[in-house]
Design goal:
By secondary structure, this protein is mainly α. Helices cover 96% and strands 0% of the residues. The protein has two helices and no strands. α1 packs antiparallel against α2. The two termini are 40 Å apart.
């Protein structure tokens, strides 16, 4: 039952990742792309129209640093979710392989005992 509970917990976690966490992380990156495009437009317009080019450049640098940090965090969140999903699926495949090997051993044993009994 311990293995069964673990498998159930993995299945629940896998569903959370696939149904919610990974899609929301992807959406956050898509939203960032749109927001960064708008921010780039603002910074360009601000630089062109601003009398103090140095201040406009410093503001652009500040936004760039914040944006890069935010995107890096979002990529890390998405990558972590995908890695967790792959680890769970790998474990599920290992269990299936083990079950298939066990069934194959049972089949071989049954074939052997049938051959022995028929002799």
């Amino acid at each position: 039952t311990c293995t069964s509970n673990m498998a159930n917990e993995e299945e629940v976690r896998l569903q959370q990742l696939m149904d919610s966490e990974i899609p929301s992380s992807r959406q956050a990156l898509k939203d960032s792309h749109k927001n960064l495009s708008e921010l780039a437009g603002y910074c360009e317009t601000n630089y062109v129209e601003c009398a103090d080019k140095g201040a406009a450049l410093e503001e652009t640098k500040k936004y760039a640093i914040q944006s890069l940090a935010s995107v890096a965090y979002q990529i890390n969140t998405l990558a972590t979710g995908v890695m967790q999903m792959l680890e769970i699926q790998t474990e599920q495949l290992r269990r299936m392989e083990s079950d298939l090997n066990h069934l194959n051993q049972v089949d071989v044993w049954q074939t052997f005992t049938c051959d022995v009994e028929s002799q």
